[in-house]
Amino acid sequence: MHLEFSKKEELFREEVSSWLSKNLKGKFKPVVGRGGSGDQTELLEERVEWEKHMGKSGWTCIGWPKKFGGRNASINEQVIFYEEYTKAGGPGRIGHIGETLAGPTIISFGSKEQQKRFLPKIRLGEEYWCQGYSEPSAGSDLAAVKTKAELVKGKWKINGQKIWTSLAKESDWIFVLCRTTKKSSGREGLSYILVPMSQPGITIQPIKQLTGQSEFNEVFFDNAETQEENVVGEVGEGWKVAMGTLGFERGTSTLGQQMAFEQEFNTVLKIAKENGSSEIPSIKNQLSEAWIGLRIMRFNALRMLSNSRDGLLSKEAMLSKLYWATWHRNLGKLAMDVLGMESEIGDKLPYDLTFLQKMFLFTRSDTIYAGTNQIQRNIISERALGMPKEPRGDNKK
Amino acid sequence: MEFSLTEEQEILRDTANSFLEDFSNSQSIRKAMESDLRFDPVLWKRMASEMGWTGILVPENYGGIGLSWVELVTLMEQMGKNLLCSPFHPTVCLGISSLLEAGNEEQKSSFLPLIASGELIVTLACLERSGSWLPEGIETTFEKKGSEYCLNGIKRFVPYGHSSDLIIVAARKKDNSNSKDLSLFLVGSDNPNISINQLTTMDQTRPQSELKLSNLKLSESKLLGKEGDGWEILNKVRSLGALGIAADQVGGAQKCLDMTCKYVLEREQFGRKIGSFQSIKHRLADMMVLVESARSSAYYAACLVKEGNDELDEAISIAKSYCSEAYFKCASDSIQLHGGVGFTWEYDVHLYFKRAKSSEIAFGSPQLHKDKIANFLGI
Predict the structure, then answer these.
(1) Which tens digit of pLDDT belongs to each residue from B114-140?
(2) Residues B289, A76: C-beta atoms closer than 8 Å
(3) B155, B139 contact by CB (below 8 A)
(4) pLDDT at residue A248, as a whole number
(5) CATH architecture for residues B123-227
(6) What is the ipTM of this complex?
(7) DSSP state, A334?
(8) Residues A249, A262, A342, A390: which is the catalytic one?
(9) Hey, what CATH class is B7-120 in?
(10) Does A1 sit within 8 Å of B377, measured CB to CB?
(11) Which of A79, A296, A385 sits opposite B296 (nearest CB)?
(12) What angle do CA B320, B321, B325 make, to 5 degrees?
């Protein structure tokens, strides 16, 4: 057990940081530090340019195998990359769904043709992806999806609705979990299908969130079409593929995310020092606890990464979502407490809020999306501690 | 970066756990904690000679096995898990650390081999009536008369004071206004001018004593470190002491979770295992988050001791405050989820609950360490 990085890894760190400092300037200067939580849909064109630039230079998809254009970077190297990227103020990634979800799924479960067709465009920042999982009546209970796909003359015809889709308008493709077996229910009869977004059968409706902004969308499928060969894995095996994707979701980007959290924490700390609220014992204590919580989040992540070498989800990984979501939500609340009376006052009329107000409001969703805190606790107690599974209700009405 | 146990460290962990499951079981814990010594001297000898544990930090040239704090934390986690009653923490975390930090060659070569072989039990007497961890809390004085030191004062909260052979005593120079002008002395417990009074402790697995020093005379060779360096040495040693407690807390918290999981899968009410209720499952999930996070924090700090990192003090404060709160919460929840039987003397849960409380305040309460963190943050 040791914490120090090897010489080779430190050299890699230098390579990353020097590339970033040489390239994140000039025409890319405006995107530095942009596109994070609550700022996701800003400066899109400029950020797409940046994605392409990174892709050309070989700095996207570094964890992918070499034969798919990646660098086969080790977990430690990926950690280093995300740390340096965040430190340098690298903008919020638009390509992350392709790079960390769609791509790895296609690498693991896709056909040779699919790999050839889709992977290079993800890597080069030429095509962007969004996720079609949740539906109005399939939130925590993902296996209750109703969206249907039917094979008609060599094409899938898709009907139904997805919800809470990030970056829907900006995406070229969506991976859709849908029913391909009539009258099936639950995890049976589902397939994982890739569907082009730009077509008359797809309508995107932004959802106005409590923040006043619209990062999430509804996506309606009304006889939307895709080619027969765009199923990943076997027809009817969609649940297995979808679970694989969820496994990729909790990975090496956590440390980069934590550095973004650290920057937020430092902003709150700075204000607390300036406005004197850090001298209020309860605020001082909460700041201290927030810092302890953030450091431990890092220690947990380092353990998770060291223990997940075999590619399986370690028990630490099961805890990570519940931990960070709760921590981040608490930071949002603390930011408002630190601001005191000023916490109510936004930037400008009619409803432009400050960065910290947006964070306070946005973090309410952290403990809901990608598995609510309650679902996380079920997962932990059932899978890691061996408690009995929740009984399923009878919804055959 | 490889933040997981090596194969050798896993073997150490598993060997320690199976040894302790055999020799520190419910029956032997209760026997030891109610005995005069408050530990089993036969077991202590085996821990030293068969297992080599008392020499874990002692360099090989002094008769030990010279391993690092990572191995020590691994071992102490198992001791906490099995609620071991023994003067291991004062002897190893405090005694050996003090000698390694400040001892001269003669002191090291006369004491370290004896500690490693299990023949010498050591403790640290630093706190006094105020219970304060600040230098002002130390009122015991020393004055130098010719080539002798003379100590006077009353020490309190001395772990295993009644069963120690060698006591490291902190005292201040008489009539000196500088509150940090402290020095450390090596005192044999057989000295006639020291009276040792064992106190009743709520946690019977961590006994404490009060020591009265009346005109206790010591030769110059008993000074540990330089005169006036006591506060600096104490700070380092107590910081390591806090990490040792944190490791014990991780193990204790883990055991509380394990015992509770086992119980809620046996106990049935309303025709079902109570572990099937979400109110219980969710509480267990929260306990697991606490236990695993506590573990990460203790091992992180242990790596920093090994690597000699500047962040060490901060990491130890993080570990001690978090592990303290995690253990206390897990032990409290364990009583609650055991229901009525958790309130009985017969079940072991209360022993863990009491150890959680005593270790929470040992070497700085969570609040004290959070204040230190605030200080690091510049607030």
Answers:
(1) 999 999 999 999 999 999 999 999 999
(2) no
(3) no
(4) 63
(5) Beta Barrel (2.40)
(6) 0.95
(7) H
(8) A249
(9) mainly alpha
(10) no
(11) A296
(12) 110
